[in-house]
Structure to design on (165 residues):
């Protein structure tokens, strides 16, 4: 089973989480490919928050996503203004061959546990609109710079859900 981990990371926290997920999947003998979404221009703090709140797309460099090679994908991003980074919306709008693919969704943020509900709902809606099949478990990791503060206890459950048939 080949898993694609597609993520956007502005500060490196989501990249750190994606690499941790990659390690844990490799421990389970899965083939994994990391794909980082690249912004055309790194948005400033206020522009990023405004775009996230309004869920406006932001331009990305890598716009061709052919997902045929993956049996399932994980899509992750930071939370801005209580919502997923807008690059996730751009990704789902650009993704090819995603219909019917199982997708696990994850976010990173500094907010308190439980504050990710809105982001989870928005990401799930994007995935379903484009024909992806979101798994039941949503992974929310509370971060401090470069380190997971809370949420590691559910990573294994999240991955088990993604890998189940």
């Amino acid at each position: 089973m080949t898993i694609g981990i597609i993520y956007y990371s502005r500060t490196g926290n989501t990249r750190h989480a994606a690499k941790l997920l990659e390690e844990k999947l490799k421990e389970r003998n899965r083939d994994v490919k990391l794909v980082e979404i690249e912004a055309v221009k790194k948005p400033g703090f206020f522009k990023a928050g405004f775009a996230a709140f309004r869920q406006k797309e932001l331009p990305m460099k890598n716009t061709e996503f052919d997902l045929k090679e993956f049996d399932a994908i994980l899509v992750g991003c930071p939370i801005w203004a209580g919502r997923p980074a807008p690059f996730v919306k751009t990704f789902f709008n650009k993704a090819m061959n995603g219909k019917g693919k199982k997708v696990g969704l994850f976010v990173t943020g500094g907010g308190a546990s439980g504050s990710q509900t809105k982001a989870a709902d928005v990401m799930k809606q994007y995935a379903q609109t484009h024909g992806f099949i979101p798994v039941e478990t949503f992974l929310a990791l509370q971060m401090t710079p470069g380190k997971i503060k809370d949420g590691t206890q559910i990573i294994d459950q999240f991955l088990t859900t993604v890998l189940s048939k």
DSSP finds five helices and ten strands in the chain. The CA atoms of residues 72 and 102 lie 5 Å apart. Strands lie at 2-7, 31-36, 65-66, 72-80, 83-84, 95-96, 102-109, 133-134, 139-144, 147-150.
